[in-house]
Predict the structure.
Amino acid sequence: MHNKTFVAVAVGLGLITLSACGSGGGAKSSADSKTVTLVSHDSWAVSKSVLRDFEKKTGYKVHVLKDGDAGQAVNKAILTKDNPQGDVFFGVDNTLLSRALDNGLFQPYTAKGLDKTGAAYQLDQDKHRVTPVDYGDICVNYDKAYFGKHKLTPPQSFADLAKPEYKNLLVTENAATSSPGLGFLLGSAAQFGDDGWQDYWKKLKANGVKVVDGWEQAYYQEFSGSSEGRKAGGDRPLVVSYASSPPAEVIYAKKRPSTAPTGVSYGTCFRQIEFAGLLSNAENPKGAKAFIDFLVSKEFQEDMPLNMFVYPVVEGAKVPAEFTEYGKAAEHPETMAPGKIAANRDQWVKSWTSLVLK
């Protein structure tokens, strides 16, 4: 995401761009053990005052290195793991976790405060190579005005999206290049099973689903319900985005509306969990550990929602009123065990690509 703030509005994971926090550009000096270098995707964001608190309490300066979207950042971290770009990595999610772990990207560390994160988020609890930091739900969003005008009920489920009344209305992201696109594919595989998801996508293709490279293009150019999409002449009233997108539409509106202009089809959601880890061969493991502890502190967890539009994983961390007033997390999202994602992800993406894009 970029400096139009709600232009990648975080609305999710892997999307916002703020200027790097802390000590600014350039590589870290190898001799500087008082600097912690964070490697992350472009949507990393934190309030300056909260980061200053960490730096004051610990004596470490934080240098942030943003490396594109989540998939790109993980792949680059794997390629450079013997001589890593930094000390700690934030932003690997459950769809890509096995790739990072199988490639030895992280060394074990049990964060102080890990016991306050829900067990459902601890997907590596035997080895503690990663620490859960946040979660969000990838879900279809709909343009309320369009469905009101056409007196059409918005789709409620994955199956609904293949019905004739929703022909040519949905835009999604490429599962091979986009984190929400991959999450939506995994959600459909969880819903319809190993044998059923391909037939489902054949139906979606026949029903006119449009596929674009990434979330920004889908949400800001194609989707008629977002403020940017309306300006761009977007004509698709259904988009794969996040459950936290409607609150973001309200918060970043020039004139705050009383209700969100977009809604969420809660029967289409897939739960995404993001993690941080201490990079193997990190030059400053001590500083990295302090920073990971900070990520699961109440201060950071409560600061995070309005910066990255994700939900805290620490019990008792408060969620902003806007999140509950204008949208909510999914109550029954689709999920998938990391081992199953690991065993099938690459083959499913390959099959999806030949099925949907060719």
